[in-house]
Write a structure and sequence with these properties.
Length: 316
């Protein structure tokens, strides 16, 4: 009888806020903090995505390091001494939250109100928001031609919502430029490359090729970008319409797990249902095959379920 191979994984021991923590080699500082039950704010981090260190809200102090380090990307090392709540860390998080909060609509970003309170962030101290950009103005902004603000109002990325298809809307007034949608659409998962970051500095934005509307772009409507967007900038049209009508109510929703019936891949689906109607579809991030990703059929092809014959049982 042959022996069952045993995989031995090395561990590293580090100190976090004075406590010794042992984690498998290759873990990030954020992984180690989570293992300690510490709540570190994150925005651009995604458990299924390559870290890009874009938002800088997860920074921690590492002894011997001149600068703060992004806990979501930096690997834990033997003997490392980490501080997650020093004055320097708190000040940095406060600054990041204020810069984001004063320029971006974070009204549908989870946890931000709590973090603002925790770090004493007051985005409103940057002044009232400047008027929104006219439709398409930010998409046409050219690198190196950024105009200085008026000194009275806070510059923002406010602009009209892009609604150009029946599946999902793009509300870039809510975009923090975290790159997660670009990663999901690109080499991390979908390899479609329909979107990328265009422009520079404050004019940087997510764009399709030549700013084409989604139906004319390379987008295949897998919706994997919506699945990872942390701010609601990318949103199911069904959710957007309900929110606009004041009817979106997560507390009244159920989530039912099932298997997509369209093809033999058999992706896991989570059907979010409100008032007996599917309002959006997600897929579990911890699924070993699909990692939260779907194709257009699994993500958006749910209307047929709701095409009930007149008078048929509505499921009550
Ligand atoms: S649209 Fe969403 S996922 Fe994409 S960069 Fe903006 S905030 Fe991040
Ligand atoms: S989501 Fe797409 S790939 Fe997955 S089972 Fe459904 S049809 Fe097949
Ligand atoms: S969550 Fe670590 S840099 Fe954004």
């Amino acid at each position: 009888m042959s022996a069952v191979p045993v995989t031995i994984r090395r561990t590293v021991e580090l100190q976090i806020d004075g406590d010794a923590v042992r984690v498998p080699e290759g873990s990030t500082i954020l992984d180690a903090c989570k293992a300690r039950g510490l709540d570190i704010p994150t925005l651009c981090y995604g458990e299924t995505l390559t870290p890009v260190n874009a938002c800088r809200v997860c920074m921690v102090e590492v002894e011997g390091s001149r600068v703060l380090v992004p806990s979501c990307a930096r690997k834990a090392e033997d003997g490392m001494v980490v501080r997650t709540r020093s004055d320097r860390v708190d000040h940095s998080r406060k600054m990041v939250l204020e810069f984001l909060g004063s320029s971006v609509d974070l009204s549908t970003t989870q946890h931000v109100d709590r973090w603002n309170r925790e770090y004493g962030a007051a985005p409103e101290r940057y002044g009232p928001p400047a008027p929104p950009a006219p439709e398409g103005a930010r998409d046409r902004a050219q690198a190196g031609r950024h105009h200085a603000g008026d000194g009275q109002t806070a510059a923002t990325v406010a602009q009209p919502v892009k609604i150009d298809n029946e599946n999902y809307v793009r509300d870039y007034a809510k975009c923090i430029l975290c790159y997660k949608c670009v990663e999901g659409c690109g080499t991390d998962w979908q390899n479609t490359f329909a979107i990328a970051v265009a422009g520079r500095g404050f004019d940087a934005r997510i764009a399709t090729e030549f700013d084409a509307p989604l139906p004319d772009s390379a987008c295949v409507y897998c919706g994997n970008c919506i699945a990872v967007c942390p701010t609601g900038a990318l949103m199911f049209k069904s959710e957007y319409d309900l929110r606009q009508a004041g009817g979106w109510d997560e507390s009244a929703q159920t989530v039912t797990e099932t298997i997509c019936s369209y093809c033999g891949v058999g992706c896991s689906l989570e059907l979010h249902v409100q008032d007996n109607t599917i309002v959006k579809v997600t897929s579990p991030l911890d699924h070993g095959v699909t990692h939260g990703n779907l194709c257009v059929k699994g993500r958006f092809g749910f209307q047929y379920v709701q095409n009930r014959a007149p008078g048929a049982d509505d499921g009550a």
